[in-house]
Amino acid sequence: MELHTGHHLIIQFLGMGVNMDTIYLTWLVALLVIIVTVSATRSRALVPSGLQNAVEMIIEALLAQFKETLGPKWQQVVSVLLTFFLFILFSNELGLLPSPHLLASPTNDLNTTLGLALVSTFMVHYVALKNQGVKKHVKHYFEPFVPFVLMNILEEFTKPLTLAFRLFGNILAGEILLEVLYKLVPAGVPIVWLIFSLFIGLIQAFIFTILVTSYLADSLESD
Description:
- It is a multi-pass membrane protein.
- Pfam families: ATP-synt_A.
- Keywords: ATP synthesis, Cell membrane, CF(0), Hydrogen ion transport, Hydrolase, Ion transport, Membrane, Transmembrane, Transmembrane helix, Transport.
- With about 220 residues, this protein is mainly alpha-helical.
- The protein has two domains: about 10-45; about 70-90 and about 110-220.
- Helix content is about 70%, strand content about 5%.
- Strands 1-2 form a two-stranded antiparallel sheet.
- A hairpin with a 2-residue loop joins β1 (about 10-15) and β2 (about 15-20).
- α2 packs parallel to α6, α3 (about 80-95) packs antiparallel against α6 and α5 runs antiparallel to α6.
């Protein structure tokens, strides 16, 4: 299966087009996340090194951010947020691996990023209902004044859209430019852009996770 950025292997299922390459690569990312996390946490040393050290540095930085943003109830959602971050990080970087059109980032497919955004939106409302109850959750749409209700409802629709399109656009654009550079300048410049893209993949995973964290912070408030 030969993959090119922005093109997908599509099959028809129940009258709908399904991007099979995205599904295969999503499974691959999930497998990689499991392998890396298990390898990093198995037989943990008192003084970490190598993979364990790298994973612990990232996790500790994220946990500190979660605690500061979410407050005392941060443990209710921390496992989901860490899963978001690791899945998006590995997805972003997968398409940057040197391969003869065999690998691509699942996050360069809008279906993936929109799915992640919708799951995060569902989680935000579920956590809000769990911690605040139906009455308070509905009431916040009418704050600070009743006429703001339409604006507040519209915001709930725009949040997942901005999450999805921001991640999708950044990853797709980066991979397209990298593919063009490999054809125009086979050596030198593509390597520099590849290193930059690796950093961008990390930043985009962090931004998505922190934005979802900020949305959850309001949902966890029960007073």
